[in-house]
Amino acid sequence: MGAPLVLLLVLFLVYPVGQLLLLSVYGDNGFTLAQYRQLFASSVYLDVLLITLKISLVTTLICVVTGYPIAYLISVVGKERKATLLFWVLLSFWTSFLVRAFAWIVLLGRNGVINKTLVSLGIISSPANLLYNFGSVLVGMVNALLPLAVLTMLSVMENIDRNLPRAAATLGARPGMAFWKIYFPLSLPGVAAAGIMVFVTAIGFFIVPALLGGRRETMITQLIIDQVQQTMNWGFAGAISVLLLVVVLIVFAAYDRLLGLSTMTGASAPSNAKPSRLSGPVVRAGDALLTLLGAISDRIVLLWPSRRRDRNSDQAGMGLQAFVWTMLLIISAPTILMIPLSFGTGGLNWPPQGFTLHWYETVLNSSVWTQAMLRSLLVGIGTGLLAMLIGTPAAFLLVRSDIRGKAAWLAFILSPIVVPRMIIAVGLFYVFARMGLVGSAVGLILGHTVVAVPYVVMTMMAVLRNYDTRLDQAAQSLGARPFATLRFVTFPILGAGMMSSFLFAFATSFDELTIALFATGGLNATLPKQFWDEVTLQVSPSIAAVSTCLFVFMGLLIFVAERLRRRAAAR
Amino acid sequence: MVSSSLRIHALCKRYGDFVALAPTSLEVAKGEFLTLLGPSGSGKTTLLSLIAGLAHPDEGQILIDDTDVTRSPAYARDIGVVFQNYALFPHMTIEDNIAFPLKMRKVSDAEARRRTAEALETVCLPHVAKRYPRELSGGQQQRIALARCIVYRPAIILMDEPLGALDKKLRDQMQLEIKRIHRELGTTIVYVTHDQEEAMTMSDRICLMNAGAIEQLGTPQDLYFRPRSVFVADFLGESNLLSATVRGVDGEGLDIVLTEQASASRAVGNGSRFATGEPVKVMVRPQNLVVGEGGQLSGRLTDVMISGSLTRLYIAPETAGLPQLVAAHPTRSGSAPYEIGQRLSLGWHAADAVAIHDGKET
What does pTM read for this prediction? Predict the structure, then answer.
């Protein structure tokens, strides 16, 4: 049952990436280290690597620190407020990186909302240069990755028993102490998982630094793009890829040493969390630190004489709520502010003037855009179906049967998430070029399936773990043959889960730029590729119109997916 | 009089329009074992949460050892809670779990170690100190949860259906264990359960709750033999309830006439006042319904069930309108077997027929 998945990954992940890595050491005259000599000849590439690490590290820190309170609030509030909060996080999560980066260009521009507001308030006399610097890249990166950090931490926090902090309170712990000594240590696996997810994704980013950064914020993946698109220097692109891959692997190895990779795969319910591999003194020091933090927080609370300390311990504080809503506003506002601009006659200058559908007409009348939309829909649906067909049986296999080396298989299946997307993209481009698949929908669907299938497998594994296999046994005891059991019992119950994993794969493909960047062009372009081509040429209001369409489309998609999820949960 | 450990005055909790707890007053003496018993949604867990400080009342007062703690947070009350799912901290060893409340109270390390070991001795699990909660069985986790409470000697220990997750045999064993610890330490315990047998075995007093209010408060014997309402009679143990009318009152005794049978008989009151002509329910427990000659009622045997020590007879009365009756006697070997359909005569002693106000207690 897992054969198609293994075949897919070997052909379109292992082989292309292997090829690319080989290219870095094989020149026309056999084995050579020339590429690596060039890589380390000057400090240029190492500087780019350092900048990449710096941006990624700062982004990770900000995402985890600001994401923690958001995830915490979502995990403690009541059902309805939780749905609202989660909607905004998910909307941001699913809104294309491109759309969000573009929105920040508009927002931070010389005539953008921020400059205009600051000037009209008299805080500054002339518009400031807010774009193309370290700060703007950071803002874009945090906006891009904060939702990921929140969702990763949330998955762990939701599994923390609400009774534990309450139990701590009855045992004499003040709120600060209960948080730092009980809740925080239990949420740490989520923090670590969020940290590594964000860091590894950030290292492979190129959209944000390319759109919002200046020359000094060039990141490593941009170098790879340059090598492939401008000089077709496969060998050197391969060498840079190796460098990138080595960095990522070192990060993972360090993570595994400290915390164990098993904490990442969602099996990190605190009840079966292994005691940390950290040695005794470190643990004691950590414990002392947490005790200190607890004592300090409680001291601070005591300093606040006016505060009513008798309020319900389950109710979140006003400060926390204000912070969370501010953060959600910051990550959602840019895209939303673009909506009025897309109907304006005054270009992308704030405030919007007049009302026109001109930009929407321009987009709809342009065959490039309409072709791109159709192509994206086609590829997205193809990817969704293929990923489901291949991923679901593999999930069955991993959950239901006792195959040997389950952990290793799982690691292999999840590897498309771990390997930086850019390396997969360049490898696929090289292989597709020789197979004549460049620019074809089939090639794109295959490439997108490789990166979407891990999500399908993970979703379906989660669904299957919650599925009561006794229902199947009951069906069989009532006379249903295996196929009838699948058709009348198993699939109807798993339907919602399958639908949501289809949507997940669809959305992944619909928003995919890295693979599409090389594999398509002109009339073959997908929507993100067309968007990228336009936005790197010029910043025009028609892009705002496209962004608005994408935003609304994604909003609807989440709404539908959420409905499905709830229907599944209601059963 | 023994000073009270816990005093609750007109405590009330609403969630929107829903009254989780109607104004309720209650006193628990030092060292007493009080059980809050009732069906789910009766307000017993709400009351427990209010005492623990995990929920906050809309009105009323809570005093622990004569200190008003109504507005105090959970950590400042001198209480211990054993949670339904134990709520042991999964990232701490058993030892650290038990030492946690001592650390919060800034007890010195050496003292904390000594008392932790002592608490583990008390619950008969000294060898698990270094393990993690998930490595213990349900029953062991239950004991550790208890040890974590007794280690700091709180004025009151609150237990929220602590044995709910255990199987029958383990539950019986833990009931004895909890009683032993209660005796040895003399702690005040407020215990929540929906299991009437558990409440009967363990409690000094039972507080039976229904629909957010106290239905009856008293010793297990009080509740069992002198139920104040039909609800209490029904909830605790099996009972036969017959409609009747009061014809005369002399002290504790009552002259009554069964509605369907129209025959005069005698009953005792349940402690409340009755008036002549009033409609009542007469409760006779199955073991007090005697099978033999010359009884007040007769009927046909429909079913016989032998549940170990007791034999239960289910009887359809011959008089129309009477409910199915159940009689019980100790199972005896070698006695003549019953035959389904056999005609039986049933009677009871006046002292075993308890009159209860029909409808709600006034």
Answer: 0.83
> Is the ipTM value over 0.90, yes or no?
no
pLDDT tens-digit series, residues A67-84: 999 999 999 888 888 888
Flag whether A27 is in a domain.
no
Segments in chain A below pLDDT 70: 260-281, 303-316, 520-523, 565, 568-571
Question: Which residue type does B114 have?
Answer: R
* Number of domains comprising chain A: 1
Collapsing DSSP states into helix, strand and coil, what is residue A87?
Answer: helix
Contact B104 A161 (CB under 8 A): no
pLDDT (0 to 100) of residue A316: 58
In whole angstroms, give the CA distance from residue A539 to residue B236. Answer: 78
Q: Which residue has the higher pLDDT, A116 or B97?
A: B97
Torsion of CA A363, A366, A368, A373, to 10 degrees: 50
Cα separations (Å) of B337 from B45, B305, B307, B311?
A: 46, 12, 15, 11
Q: Locate the domains of chain B by residue range.
A: 4-230, 231-357
Q: Specify the pLDDT at position B96.
A: 92
User: Does residue A487 sit within a domain?
Assistant: yes
Residue A141 lies in a domain: yes
**Which of chain A's residues have a Cβ under 8 Å away from the Cβ of B132?**
275
Q: Which helix (H) or strand (E) holds A554?
A: helix A541-570
- Judge whether A202 lies within some domain: yes
Comparing CB atoms, the residue among A166, A175, A271 nearest residue B90 is A271
Average pLDDT in the B36-46 region? 92
Residue-wise over A236-263: b if at least 16 C-beta within 10 A, else e? Answer: bbbbbbbbbbebbeebbeebeeebbbbb
Which CATH number is A132's domain given? 1.10.3720.10
Residue range B4-230 forms a domain whose CATH class is alpha beta
